[in-house]
């Protein structure tokens, strides 16, 4: 795994990854420190807004709402409509479905159809919730590119310790344009926030992805 002190990531991307990990930890003071560091590193406010919206899908509403509260204390008032806040009219359902399918296919690559089969087997509502609500309404939003969305998702899921989802999003980061070195840099950064068991699990998932060339 790469030395986190020698990162191939842009300074702004590295700072955003650290914020994503802090959101998953739910540590308010640490999150505030990392959000202020992100601003000092030149991370656009819109990137942070989009990361926090995406975090509702990754870490759940409770931690995401805590993160938004901390961010508002750092950044001030939320963006007005027309300044990065995409409206969510209900009549856009078909457009969200199409955008969600396209984005999800890009993330999952050749595993996309297997994902849909698995979702249908778990519950009939899950396919629409994942494609329309998660990928269409949230992950497909403008404001943060898909590669950075996946790299920050890897960071948050590594903190959560969800091995199967980590495996999927390690592949997703590669599928959306991240290099192996960039993924390793993210894992090196987030290793600072993991206990020994989660560091081992993270390393095992990444080694499996690389071995299988998924």
Summary tags:
disordered N terminus, globular, single chain, AhpD-like, 214 residues, mainly alpha
Distance separating the two termini: 18 Å
The number of E-state strands comes to 0
**Structural class given helices, strands, pairing?**
mainly alpha
Shape: globular
Give the percentage of residues in beta strands: under 5%
CATH class of the largest domain, named: Mainly Alpha
The appropriate CATH architecture of the largest domain is Up-down Bundle
Order of helices and strands: HHHHHHHHHHH
Q: Tell me the CATH topology of the largest domain.
A: AhpD-like
Radius of gyration: 17 Å
Helical proportion, percent range: over 70%
CATH superfamily of the largest domain: AhpD-like
Number of domain units: 2
Largest sheet: none
Total number of helical segments? 11
- The stretches of 5 or more residues where confidence is low (pLDDT under 50) are 1-5
Q: What is the overall pLDDT average?
A: 92
In short, what is this structure?
The chain has helices at 11-25, 28-40, 45-58, 61-75, 93-108, 112-122, 126-139, 146-160, 163-175, 180-190, 196-212. With 214 residues, it is mainly α.
């Amino acid at each position: 795994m790469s030395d986190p002190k020698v990162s191939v990531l842009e300074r702004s991307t590295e700072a955003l990854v650290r914020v994503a990990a802090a959101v998953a930890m739910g540590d308010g003071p640490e999150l505030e420190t990392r959000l202020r560091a992100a601003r000092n590193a030149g991370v656009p406010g819109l990137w942070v807004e989009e990361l926090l919206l995406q975090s509702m899908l990754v870490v759940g509403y409770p931690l995401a709402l805590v993160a938004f509260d901390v961010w508002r204390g750092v950044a001030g008032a939320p963006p007005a409509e027309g300044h990065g806040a995409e409206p969510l009219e209900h009549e856009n359902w078909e457009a969200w479905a199409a955008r969600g399918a396209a984005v999800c296919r890009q993330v999952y690559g050749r595993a996309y159809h297997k994902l849909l089969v698995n979702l249908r087997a778990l519950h009939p509502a899950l396919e629409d919730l994942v494609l329309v609500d998660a990928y269409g309404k949230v992950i497909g939003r403008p404001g943060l590119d898909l590669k950075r969305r996946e790299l920050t998702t890897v960071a948050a899921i590594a903190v959560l310790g969800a091995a199967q989802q980590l495996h999927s999003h390690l592949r997703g980061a590669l599928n959306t344009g991240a290099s192996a070195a960039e993924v390793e840099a993210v894992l090196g950064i987030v290793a600072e926030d993991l206990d020994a068991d989660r560091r081992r699990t993270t390393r095992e998932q990444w080694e499996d992805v690389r071995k299988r060339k998924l």
